[in-house]
Specification:
Helices cover about 70% and strands about 0% of the residues. With about 190 residues, the protein is mainly alpha-helical.
Length: about 190
């Protein structure tokens, strides 16, 4: 088979993505693969990254990401393929916040570190816990998981306008409690 025919076949079966245009999200919307093993390769690193940002402890984040993927495996046949990524990231965010709440916001990571970044993460986690559930989920998916407004809306099963409202109100509350400088330091809002 010639190279031209191979390229023609690939273009016929693959979606063409224009890489010259900037994406609104660093994670362009790529549907999760249909089989769990392929999806795991895509979803686990995103779960781990979100959990690390929320918890500040790689060890705890690995536990949360593994638990999330185990839950996804148990429900794999029932999950909507178009919403798998949002579901997995929402479960990761909820488990991370629950772990912080359960551990009294002090996670042991081998060595106790009082660095400023850890203090900021704990302050953010505490402030996020105080938000209403929908606002917390919308902010976690939008800013900590880097989902677009549309992807966040699909994950939460609400309209894009509702996502904007929840994020706006949640960020306003976070600014009241933490201040603009703290939110910028942890790259939220």
């Amino acid at each position: 088979m010639t190279d031209e025919r191979r390229q023609g076949q690939v273009q016929d079966t693959a979606e063409v993505i224009d890489l010259t245009k900037p994406s609104r999200s660093p994670h362009p919307r790529v549907p999760a693969p249909r089989d769990f093993d392929s999806a795991f390769v895509v979803l686990y690193p995103r779960c781990l990254g979100l959990a690390i940002r929320l918890l500040g402890s790689r060890q705890a984040a690995e536990d949360v990401a593994a638990e999330t993927m185990a839950r996804a495996l148990l429900r794999w046949d029932r999950l909507d393929p178009d919403r798998v990524t949002g579901w997995v990231l929402r479960v990761t965010a909820n488990q991370s916040i629950d772990l912080l709440r359960k551990k009294g916001r002090t996670l042991e990571s081998g060595v106790v570190s009082l660095e400023e970044s850890t203090t900021l993460r704990l302050a953010l986690a505490d402030a996020l816990q105080r938000l209403p559930k929908r606002q917390r989920e919308a902010i976690a998916l939008r800013y900590l998981s880097d989902l677009s407004e549309a992807d966040t809306a699909r994950a939460l099963r609400i309209s894009t306008g509702s996502v904007k409202t929840h994020v706006h109100r949640g960020l306003a509350t976070l600014r009241e409690h933490l201040g603009d400088e703290t939110l910028e330091a942890v790259r939220v809002g």
